[in-house]
Amino acid sequence: MKNDYDCIIIGAGPTGLMLGCLLAIKGLNFIILEKRAGVSKHSRSIGIHPPSISLFQKIGLEEKLLNFGNRITTGHAYVENKFVGEISFSELNHPYPFILTVSQSITESLLETHLLSLKADCLVRNFDISGIKRLTNGFSVSINDNKKITGKYLIGCDGKNSFVREFANISFVGKPYSDTYIMGDFEDNLGNRSIAEVHLGSNGLIESFPHGKNKRRWVIKTHTLHENPEPELLVDMTRKRIGKAPDVSTNSMMSSFGVERYLAEKMYEDGVFLAGDAAHIISPIGGQGMNLGWLDSADLVNVLAAPTEQNVQNYNNKRRSKAREAANRAFFNMYMGRSGWKTPVLNIGVGLMLKTPLQKKLIKMFTMDGLQ
Ligand SMILES: Cc1cc2nc3c(=O)[nH]c(=O)nc-3n(C[C@H](O)[C@H](O)[C@H](O)COP(=O)(O)OP(=O)(O)OC[C@H]3O[C@@H](n4cnc5c(N)ncnc54)[C@H](O)[C@@H]3O)c2cc1C
Predict the structure, then answer these.
(1) Domain ranges (residues) in the chain
(2) Which atom of ligand 1 is nearest to the CA of 52?
(3) Can you tell me the mean pLDDT for 344-369?
(4) Where residue 3 falls among pLDDT bands split at 50, 70, 90?
(5) Which residue out of 65, 290, 300 has the highest number of ligand 1 atoms within 8 Å of its CB and is therefore the one to mutate?
């Protein structure tokens, strides 16, 4: 490990790993410091949107990723269990007109292996920051056995509770919402692997997405947060609301989550950059968070290669504005999925969105078009 880098990146989640690949291709001198011993084993994020697949193509990893993923080309919408229409992503003017679904653990493993093939020794895992100091022309980070690493720029890809954001004294402005969900992965018993289903109704949202080779993720709006939910709860609620459900014995992951919206007041401050969840948290409904971090990385790499004041300002303004837009789109998805809607209102609203030119907007929104 050398101790003088252009960039010290804290965090090797999806954002830090993608940023590393892009920096390695540009030939920049960087190191990534990650406190976890290995990639997270949980399936977490699954949706990879067209602008992100283009990024995987840029780093030379899209073929492998496409092999592991499942392609969702169509979304079916139901109101109170009645089919009301569909949207097809094949209408997108994009080389990858689909949402690829892959478990986050696989995506992170692919990124890490690829990163190390581009630049060996650029990732240090299992370390503990004992302090960060500002120097005249950069930063010094102390790790584990009091070793010091110095670098010109410090980049926080360290997620929601970012240590780097706190170090730079950047406020994180936002709020939690009252919406709560349970989520589970099961073997797919619905069949068509290219179709995602969205069910709206007076009891709230149910979504199901095929992912990986044979799984389907179910997400269900709940009235309260269920700590440690059992798969039986999801199966029971789903069957009652929409008359079909996954096979409980095939469950491989269960969790519950609440929803928040936060945005860093700045994504740059005096040599410190933020990207990904360290800079913004949006509702997972719509599956954009991980993708937004990758799109930050794509812009950040160009700034780090040419760090003029103008480029830095553009990064800050553009990525905060894209994060706001993504958060608004996520809020719309969440709002439509709330309980208490009257069926005729949903029928008219959803019908209008699917059967008029508004459909183009919807396709754009569901595929993160315009957020790159
Ligand atoms: C239920 C749920 C479903 C979701 N589904 C989707 C989806 O389908 N699509 C999508 O795009 N997004 C989704 N998201 C959001 C997505 O998971 C996050 O936006 C994404 O993981 C953020 O990546 P990141 O690399 O910025 O941060 P993180 O994934 O949080 O990674 C941060 C990394 O930094 C490390 N770290 C933290 N502090 C330190 C420190 N002090 N020193 C060293 N290392 C440190 C952590 O160990 C971690 O590895 C979902 C989120 C939830 C909650």
Answers:
(1) 4-72+103-174+261-335, 177-259+339-366
(2) 11
(3) 91
(4) low
(5) 290
CB atoms within 10 A of CB 286: 23
Q: What is the CATH number of domain 4-72+103-174+261-335?
A: 3.50.50.60
Q: For ligand 1, atom 39, name the residue with the nearest CA.
A: 158
Q: What residue owns the CA closest to ligand 1's atom 31?
A: 13
297 exposure class (CB count in 10 Å sphere: 0-12, 13-18, 19+): buried
CATH class name, domain 177-259+339-366: alpha beta
- E strands along 245-356, which residues? 253-264, 268-269, 272-274, 280-281
Ligand 1 centre to CA of 49 (Å) is 16
Helix (H, G, I), strand (E, B) or coil at 237: helix
Q: What is the distance in A from the centroid of ligand 1 to the CA of 162?
A: 11
Asked if residue 337 has its Cβ within 6 Å of ligand 1, the reply is: no
Phi, psi torsion values for 97, nearest 5 degrees: -85, 60
Q: What is the dihedral of CA 258, 34, 253, 217, to 10 degrees?
A: 70
Q: From the CA of 159, how far away is ligand 1's center (Å)?
A: 5
Residue of 19, 35, 283 to test ligand 1 pocket, by largest number of atoms within 8 Å of CB: 35
Q: Fill in the amino acid letter for 158.
A: D
* Ligand 1 binding pocket mutation candidate from 44, 111, 261 (most atoms within 8 A of CB): 44
The amino acid at residue 59 is: I
Give yes or no for a contact between 207 and 198, defined as CB atoms under 8 angstroms apart: yes
Q: Would you say residue 165 has pLDDT above 90?
A: yes
Q: Is the pLDDT of residue 2 over 60?
A: no
Measured from the Cα of 291, ligand 1's closest atom is: 11
pLDDT band per the 50, 70, 90 thresholds, residue 355: confident
What digits encode the pLDDT tens for the residues 123-153? 999 988 888 999 999 999 998 767 889 999 9
Asked if residue 33 has its Cβ within 6 Å of ligand 1, the reply is yes
Question: For the segment 230-268, what is each residue's pLDDT rounded down to a tens digit?
Answer: 999 999 999 999 999 999 999 999 999 999 999 999 999
The reply to whether ligand 1 has any atom less than 6 angstroms from the CB of 286 is: no
